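User: I need a structural model of Glycine/D-amino acid oxidase from Ekhidna lutea for a docking pre-check later this week. Nothing fancy, just the predicted structure tokens so I can convert them on my end. Input:
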Amino acid sequence: MHSLWEKQSFLSPDVVIVGAGITGLSAAATLKELSPDMKVTVLERGVLPTGASTKNAGFACFGSVSELLNDIDTLGPEGMVNLVEKRWDGLQKTCQRLGRSAIDIQVKSGYELILEEGSGIVEKIDNVNQLLNPFFQEDVFKLSDAKIDSFGLGQTHHLIENHLEGQLDTGRLIATLWKYCAELGVQIHTGCKVDNIIEEENGVSILCGNVKFLAEKVGVCTNAFTSKLLKEELDIAPGRGIVMSIVPDKSLPFEGTFHYEEGYYYFRDYYGKLLFGGGRNLALKEEETTEFGVNKKIREKLLLDIENIILPNQSYEIEMEWTGIMAFGQNKAPIVQKVSDRIAIGVRLGGMGVAIGSLVGEEVAELIVNS
Ligand SMILES: Cc1cc2nc3c(=O)[nH]c(=O)nc-3n(C[C@H](O)[C@H](O)[C@H](O)COP(=O)(O)OP(=O)(O)OC[C@H]3O[C@@H](n4cnc5c(N)ncnc54)[C@H](O)[C@@H]3O)c2cc1C
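Assistant: Understood. Predicted structure tokens for Glycine/D-amino acid oxidase:
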């Protein structure tokens, strides 16, 4: 039973956004930027966001050569370029909205390790550069084999450098975006799991336990968890990813962001520490889960890779480890669409949602405003 005051001030916003990850918060921020008087409420099931946005490795990246070649296979050359442009524009949007120093973005170059001799990837650097040249007006990728030894990398035949790739502080990104939304007047309720969304004649009911919100419009930004909430058939499969924070005995011989095996493995420096994760490809079916937890087989492989590839001959301590849940489909393009006149979704952000999240949020907001 609610009071008149609760009904007026909390339970009847103009728009409810479900999910307080980068996409949901960006959608809420855009709505308030477009319409400052609009009453916007974000509902988040966790005490903290509990998906991918506060669990990732903080790569400000838009794809390594092998990943982009794979995107050409699934989306075609134009689709690949379009996705890269969106990731780049999304990063610029986040920096411009929140400020570069607030999210601690640092552009120290990104590198792809080629572990397999004769993989054919190096030969295709020029093709990928040519496709991206009209957008960036310069070559993005180049071979940097001379750095392999100084970085102390084992088992690495080639190193491809992308001087535009950076890294950021994921926690600060979400905390700053949260603060920005609050300053714009967005109400954010945590510990508020949406159980059901029901369209009524006079609006949309959003049910969270025994609390019912009634809004004009709803934006669903629940990424990997969307199928649990909506009845629509959507091509979304969850994908769990692990990250470890590692303290090496000696100082790290490299700085920057690094990927190998089509981005399935990723590591970076973070103020003298190593953040390392990935390995989902070792157990794709097992990792198609929304349960947080660590797969022992993957963990063991990561430890082997630290010893053989990343920090050969160095001792280290594992300081922390955690997992987060991503969302994948047949290709890497996010799903942004209206599912009815009153409900829009922006989901399936894949493994590069830090880059694309603010743009997907903006698109969700535009669908809501223009419907
Ligand atoms: C281990 C890992 C490493 C990654 N590394 C990178 C990287 O380095 N660079 C990069 O660009 N991307 C990376 N990503 C991907 C990136 O983090 C995601 O693509 C992005 O954060 C997705 O944002 P989102 O807001 O769409 O989804 P999420 O962050 O998952 O947000 C969805 C939110 O919805 C909430 N929710 C779900 N169901 C409900 C409900 N019923 N009611 C209320 N709330 C609900 C969840 O709790 C969650 O907070 C990584 C992801 C992981 C897991």
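Before docking, keep this in mind: The radius of gyration is 21 Å.
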